[in-house]
Specification:
By secondary structure, this protein is an alpha+beta fold. The protein is built from 3 helices and 9 strands. Strands 1, 2, 3, 4, 5, 6, 7, 8 and 9 form a 9-stranded mixed β-sheet that branches. Ligand LP2KCY5N binds next to strand 4, strand 5, helix 2, strand 6 and strand 8. Pfam families: Glyoxalase_4.
Length: 134
């Protein structure tokens, strides 16, 4: 079911300083910040040869990143995102195997304009999993 690792996401308290860390200290290529109110985040992508790092800062009321930062004030690994060919088929197979699909179970449009879904971290060894249709 899983294809490439699309990105690893890191929750940060200060997106500008986190971006500077990757761009200036580590010498990586970074995107412009993108506000995604429907996801409650502002995002910057660090572009690597084989995958991406997604830096996430909370945006607006009820942001999942704000909740995460309350429990993890220094920030840290928030989720991993795997590509799938058919997100609805993947969702149905996972549900049949007992995995919890978060939200209303319907894909949302993610940062790359593609459908995404999230799976409960307790069902995947304490790691929140995002699926993105390629
Ligand atoms: C940029 C757009 C998009 C993209 O295209 O890439 C994105 O990536 S958006 C990213 C942000 N969106 C989301 O995270 C959506 C899915 N998340 C959720 O639905 C919730 O955040 C959550 C995972 C269900 C957690 O919600 P919360 O209300 O905080 O629940 P709890 O506090 O009850 O947590 C339950 C349990 O799970 C642990 N937890 C919470 N978040 C994580 C996490 N990111 N990684 C690992 N574990 C996590 C939490 O600590 C609780 O554990 P216990 O304390 O042991 O009960
Ligand atoms: Co993501």
């Amino acid at each position: 079911m899983l294809k490439r690792l699309n990105h690893v996401a890191i929750a940060v308290t200060d997106l500008e300083s986190a971006t500077a860390n990757y761009r200036d200290t580590l010498g990586a290529r970074v995107s412009e910040p993108q506000a995604l109110p429907e996801h409650g985040v502002t995002v910057v992508f660090v572009e690597l040869d084989n995958t991406k790092i997604e830096l996430l800062e909370p945006l607006g009321e009820g942001s999942p990143i704000a909740a995460f930062l309350e429990k993890n004030p220094s920030g840290g690994l928030h989720h991993v995102c795997y590509e799938v060919e058919d997100i609805l088929a993947a969702r149905d197979q996972l549900k049949a195997k007992g995995a919890r699909v978060l939200g209303d179970g319907e894909p949302k449009t993610g940062a790359h304009g593609k459908p995404v879904l999230f799976l409960h971290p307790k069902d995947f060894n304490g790691t929140l999993v995002e699926l993105e249709q390629i």
